[in-house]
């Protein structure tokens, strides 16, 4: 990961950067290069804002840089240049430990492959972010049990992931993403590993959670999944090509 | 992250790899057990020997001649003490008894129709035999044609010697002396501290009328009996003062001094000095052997490190998950350190009783009384936990440094 200016200067796509208080995520002129034998530019001068309570989908072919964008916003990675601010905190300038805290409290991840701890029960998986956030055991369990009932798994709290179906595992992962009441939920192909019906149920759950005020950023390559969002950001070759408003046709 | 949670995660992980964890623990168990075994055995032997000497010989002072300025222990020179010396030593405050000893040469000793050749016959005073050492019979008296034998000697004949029986001693000139065995002893007062198994068969005779070695006393100017060995029994409350008074006499005007070569130094040693020397030697040997056992512990530690590295690789994805949900590097490190420390702790908790058991068996086999070495036990448990932590440090550090993005992609 090399620091410095992007090697290829291309036109920047700026999306209405509003400095309003309800901006949950501000991505400002972010570039990311990887040093894999030669320098590979994954993102090139990308700017994007997510307002609180919004639901945004990122679409693009594989290798377009959409996962890199998600990792940068989620604090799993740091940009080569530019700034990422999540809920008022500058992720791009944060130390490793600070980023760990941001990942734990400001962001909730939902992955394609669920990424649950195989030997922990559903309730322990949901409570895991709370462990690192310093909650005591009883409060953790209380919170995790209530979240599991919220996603419809109130009767599966003590099952380990291998005893759950794909859809149930993804619900556990969603409950875990909600556990610290984060400012933003990042979902990376959340329906990629489940059948169509189950996928639809998961997206319904996202709709419910969005309606309850949660902010979503969802990465997908499937059009029908992306259309559940309010707007679709099209990414290609490390650039934002266009932003499409799909929330009932209003611009 | 609270420790309870990392212990819980660790226990799940250990349970998921029962055999692997068990074998790793066995490595630590062997290491801790061998350290405990040798330490316990060494402590037992030391306590046994030191206890023997301390109970019977604390108030004894032994006199040696050694080449001066030479630390070489085994080069003792035989001094000669005259009757004059004995009298002078008896006059020192705090001295309760002076027990000279001399060797009477015999060709053989006969009992009934069984003859034992070349027996050591020791000439000494009746005061050498206190009620405490007498197994049966009584002490001989001065001028009596009688002997006292020790138990080894009594058992040397096919029919055990008992008090009242007759012995015939053949002297170097071929003459025979018939004597009565008046007592059997299991040691003598003021003997050089040795353990029971090092004891030789002995026959004791009174100085009068058996011992005849003489030398001209430089101070008295007359020929007197001379003895190669003298032991003093002193008041146990005044050992240091008495010992230094004896030393002063020996180094000064004693006949033994005048009759010794200039480079010979006469030294008075107390039973306590012996205890210290012997303890020191045994401790050194114990430390050395225990040090070798520590190698087993190091091998156990390498086992932990090895298993932890495998565990880190296997759980790379889990590390990624933990990091994605807010685990800091030190949280990840803690999870793996706790696992390593737990393996070490379980190993030492099992190793201590095993080591004690084997150590107990060894003391039974060597016929010494079992003594605990509590310091070593505490040390072994501490070392076991430490071994786990140290062995887990590098794997845990590797785990903490895992890049979460790579880890989440890891299959």
TrEMBL record, chain A:
MF term (GO), any: ATP binding
Every ABC transporter domain range: 25-251
Classification via Pfam families: ABC_tran
Keywords of this entry: ATP-binding, Nucleotide-binding, Transport
GO cellular component, as recorded: membrane protein complex; plasma membrane
UniProt keyword ATP-binding present: yes
SUPFAM superfamilies registered for this protein in UniProt: P-loop containing nucleoside triphosphate hydrolases
SMART domains: AAA (SM00382)
Signal peptide: none
Matching PROSITE patterns: ABC_TRANSPORTER_1 (PS00211), ABC_TRANSPORTER_2 (PS50893)
InterPro entries, sorted: AAA+_ATPase, ABC_transporter-like_ATP-bd, ABC_transporter-like_CS, ABC_transpr_LolD-like, MacB-like_ATP-bd, P-loop_NTPase
Protein name from the UniProt record: ABC transporter ATP-binding protein
Lineage, opening ranks: Archaea, Methanobacteriati, Methanobacteriota, Stenosarchaea group, Halobacteria
Automatic annotation (TrEMBL), chain B:
Residues annotated as transmembrane: 21-43, 288-312, 333-361, 373-394
GO molecular function (one): transmembrane transporter activity
Start and end residues of each MacB-like periplasmic core domain: 21-247
Keyword Membrane among UniProt keywords: yes
Domain ABC3 transporter permease C-terminal residues, every copy: 292-404
Domain of life from the UniProt record: Archaea
Family, similarity comment: Belongs to the ABC-4 integral membrane protein family.
Protein name per Swiss-Prot or TrEMBL: ABC transporter permease
């Amino acid at each position: 990961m090399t620091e410095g200016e992007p090697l290829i200067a291309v036109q920047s796509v700026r999306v209405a950067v509003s400095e309003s208080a309800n901006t949950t995520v501000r991505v400002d002129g972010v570039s990311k290069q990887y040093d894999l034998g030669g320098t590979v530019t994954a993102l090139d001068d990308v700017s994007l804002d997510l307002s609180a309570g919004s639901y945004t989908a990122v679409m693009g072919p594989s290798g377009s840089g959409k996962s890199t964008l998600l990792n940068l916003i989620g604090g799993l990675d740091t940009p080569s240049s530019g700034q990422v601010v999540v809920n008022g905190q500058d992720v791009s300038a944060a130390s490793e430990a600070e980023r760990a805290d941001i990942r734990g409290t400001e962001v909730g991840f939902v992955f394609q492959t669920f990424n649950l701890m195989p030997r922990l029960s559903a309730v322990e998986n949901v409570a895991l972010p709370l462990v690192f956030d310093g909650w005591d055991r009883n409060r953790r369990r209380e919170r995790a049990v209530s979240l599991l009932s919220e996603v419809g798994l109130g009767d599966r709290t003590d099952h380990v992931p291998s005893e759950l179906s794909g859809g149930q595992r993804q619900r556990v992962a969603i409950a875990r993403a909600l556990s610290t009441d984060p400012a933003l939920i990042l979902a990376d192909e959340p329906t990629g590993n489940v059948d169509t019906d189950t996928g639809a149920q998961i997206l319904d759950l996202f709709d419910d959670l969005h309606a309850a005020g949660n902010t979503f950023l969802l990465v997908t390559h499937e059009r029908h999944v992306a259309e559940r969002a309010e707007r679709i950001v099209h990414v290609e070759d490390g650039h934002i090509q266009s932003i499409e408003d799909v929330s009932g046709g209003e611009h | 992250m609270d420790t309870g949670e990392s212990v819980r995660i660790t226990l799940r992980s250990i349970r998921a790899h029962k055999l692997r964890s068990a074998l790793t623990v066995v490595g630590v168990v062997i290491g801790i057990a061998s350290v405990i075994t040798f330490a316990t055995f060494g402590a037992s032997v030391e306590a046994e020997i030191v206890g023997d000497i301390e109970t019977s010989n604390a108030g004894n002072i032994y006199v040696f001649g050694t080449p001066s300025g030479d630390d070489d222990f085994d080069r003792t020179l035989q001094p000669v003490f005259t009757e004059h010396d004995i009298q002078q030593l008896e006059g020192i405050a705090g001295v309760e008894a002076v027990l000279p000893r001399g060797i009477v040469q015999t060709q053989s000793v006969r009992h009934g129709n069984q003859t034992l050749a070349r027996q050591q016959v020791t000439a000494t005073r009746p005061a050498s035999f206190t009620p405490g050492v007498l197994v049966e019979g009584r002490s001989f008296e001065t001028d009596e044609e009688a002997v006292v034998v020790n138990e080894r000697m009594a058992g040397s004949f096919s029919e055990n010697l008992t008090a009242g029986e007759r012995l015939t001693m053949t002297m170097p000139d071929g003459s025979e002396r018939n004597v009565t065995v008046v007592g059997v002893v299991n040691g003598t007062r003021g003997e050089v501290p040795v353990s029971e198994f090092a004891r030789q068969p002995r026959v004791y005779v009174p100085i009068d009328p058996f011992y005849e070695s003489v030398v001209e006393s430089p101070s008295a100017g007359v020929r007197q009996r001379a003895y190669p060995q003298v032991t003093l029994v002193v008041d146990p409350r005044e050992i240091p003062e008495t010992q230094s008074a004896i030393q002063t006499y020996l180094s000064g005007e004693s006949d033994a001094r005048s009759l010794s070569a200039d480079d010979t130094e006469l030294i008075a040693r107390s039973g306590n000095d012996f205890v210290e020397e012997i303890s020191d030697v045994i401790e050194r040997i114990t430390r050395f052997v225990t040090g070798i056992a520590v190698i087993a512990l190091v091998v156990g530690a390498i086992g932990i490190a090895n298993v932890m590295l495998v565990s880190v690789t296997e759980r790379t994805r889990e590390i990624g998950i933990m990091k994605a949900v807010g685990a800091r590097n030190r949280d990840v490190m803690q999870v793996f350190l706790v696992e390593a420390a737990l393996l070490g702790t379980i190993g030492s908790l099992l190793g201590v009783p095993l080591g004690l058991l084997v150590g107990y068996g060894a003391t039974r086999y060597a016929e010494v009384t079992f003594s605990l070495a509590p310091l070593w036990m505490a040390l072994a448990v501490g070392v076991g936990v430490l071994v786990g932590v140290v062995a887990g440090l590098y794997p845990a550090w590797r785990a903490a440094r895992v890049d979460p993005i790579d880890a989440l992609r890891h299959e």
